[in-house]
Design brief:
- The protein has helices at 19-47, 59-74, 83-123, 129-161, 163-167, 178-193, 203-243, 249-281, 283-291.
- By secondary structure, the chain is an all-alpha fold.
């Protein structure tokens, strides 16, 4: 959450933003745009750089590879991943690592850009109402993007921690017919016979349940850490607002607004943490719901 620095008031009648500030803002915006492009285009190439993604050239080929590997593993009767599963899991792990790193870099750039924008907003001259409005709009937009980038980082770290479970939603990319439908039917029946995964007949299904628990436990931990950080940011912002002179309404208003955003965001993330903790504690019913099409 971008936090505005203490304002340094421009002299009365000051026209607005200095050229150096504009140059920094433009550079940060260009870097953010480049990182967005990299996030969209680079992960697939980076994931396949070691050859683990041979034959995976688009989403359709990935879905086909996942469905084929899942059927082979689900009917194998063993705990160890089959070569096909290893291939797609390695690819998916690298894919999520690449996306998490790029998204984290984007988050850092957006925070820096947001701080600069809010500082410019606080120091804009009194005669530049239009400029202040534009800066406030840009600051709000960048702050929202930073929160979205944070969510993307969280999701991709989770996917890197448990790439197998992260691949499961791709099974829903088409009708579950033929061998895939039969495999899912067998797994559903086993989970129905053992609702909490205590006595499963298939070692492969035991691995799936365990990985599903790890997938949700990862998000529970990630969300818990982020919630604490957002609460800390909110407290710091409100304390800073309390130390700001009552005559400085612009700064007090901004600090209060960002404090509210941080607090509300922390509550939303806390809900995610609690939901994932509950699922991690008893993952079998949630996995059964997924196999029933209720992901």
């Amino acid at each position: 959450m971008p936090s505005p620095p203490a304002p340094s008031r421009a002299p009365s009648g000051s026209a607005g933003i200095h050229g150096r500030t504009l140059a920094v803002l433009a550079a940060l915006a260009a870097l953010a745009a480049a990182l967005v492009a990299a996030f969209l285009l680079a992960p697939r190439a980076l994931a396949a750089a070691d050859g683990s993604g041979d034959g995976i050239v688009d989403r359709r080929s990935l879905v086909e590879a996942v469905r084929e590997a899942f059927v082979a593993y689900g009917t194998s009767g063993g705990r160890e991943f089959s070569p096909g599963v290893e291939r797609v899991v390695d690819y998916w792990f690298r894919y999520h690592v690449a996306k998490a790193v790029i998204a984290a870099l984007l988050l850092v750039v957006l925070v820096a850009l947001g701080v600069r924008l809010w500082k410019a907003f606080l120091t804009a001259g009194p005669l530049r109402t239009g400029a202040r409005t534009a800066l406030a709009s840009a600051g709000a937009f960048v702050t929202a993007l930073a929160l979205f980038s944070l969510a993307v980082v969280m999701a991709n770290v989770q996917g890197a921690v448990a790439p197998f479970s992260s691949l499961l939603p791709l099974l829903e990319a088409g009708a579950a017919e033929g061998t895939l439908g039969d495999t899912l039917g067998q797994l559903r029946r086993q989970l129905a016979d053992s609702p909490h995964g205590d006595d499963l007949a298939s070692p492969a299904l035991e691995v799936m349940v365990g990985d599903f628990a790890r997938y949700h436990a990862a998000m529970a931990v990630i969300a818990g850490v982020v919630a604490v950080a957002l609460v800390g940011a909110s407290v710091a912002l409100w304390r800073r607002r309390a130390r700001t002179a009552s005559s400085d309404r612009r700064t007090r208003g901004l600090l209060g607004a960002l404090g509210v955003v941080s607090a509300v965001s922390s509550l939303a993330v806390l809900v995610v943490a609690v939901a994932n903790t509950t699922t991690a504690a008893d993952p079998a019913p949630a996995l059964a719901a997924f196999f029933d099409g209720g992901w």
